[in-house]
C-alpha cells in the first residue's frame, strides 16, 4: 500500500489517469478477495476427490469410525443418565 502522501496534479487528465489506476487496483483487489472467499467456504467437488478407490475406502472408513464413535457416545450417555433416574 502507498503511504498517505499529498500529490499535486497539474491537469484534469492527470486526475482522471490516477482515478482509473485506483479503480483498476480496487477491482483487482475485489476479484482476489472474491476468489479467496469462495475458496474458503466451498468444498471441492466430491467427484474429483473420490475418483481413486483408495480415497473412497478411506472416506468410508472415516465416516464409519465417526458413526461408531457417535453410537458409543450416545450409549454411554444413555447409561449414565438412565442410572440416575432410578
What does this structure look like?
- With 86 residues, this protein is mainly alpha-helical.
- 78% of the residues lie in helices and 0% in strands.
- The protein is built from three helices and no strands.
- The N and C termini lie far apart (69 Å).
- The mean pLDDT is 85.
Biggest beta sheet summary: none
- The number of helices is 3
Number of strands: 0
Helix content: over 70%
Strand content: under 5%
Structural class: mainly alpha
N-to-C SSE string, H for helix and E for strand:
HHH
The low-pLDDT segments are: none
Radius of gyration, in angstroms, nearest whole number: 29 Å
List keywords for this structure.
3 helices; mainly alpha; elongated; 86 residues; single chain
Write the layout of secondary structure elements.
Elements: H1 12-41, H2 46-49, H3 53-85
Amino acid at each position: 500500500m502507498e503511504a498517505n502522501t499529498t500529490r499535486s496534479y497539474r491537469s484534469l487528465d492527470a486526475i482522471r489517469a490516477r482515478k482509473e489506476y485506483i479503480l483498476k487496483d480496487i477491482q483487482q483487489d475485489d476479484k482476489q478477495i472474491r476468489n479467496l472467499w469462495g475458496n474458503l467456504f466451498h468444498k471441492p467437488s466430491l467427484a474429483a476427490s473420490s475418483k481413486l478407490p483408495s480415497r473412497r475406502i478411506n472416506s468410508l472408513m472415516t465416516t464409519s469410525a465417526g458413526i461408531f464413535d457417535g453410537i458409543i457416545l450416545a450409549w454411554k450417555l444413555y447409561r449414565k443418565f438412565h442410572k440416575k433416574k432410578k
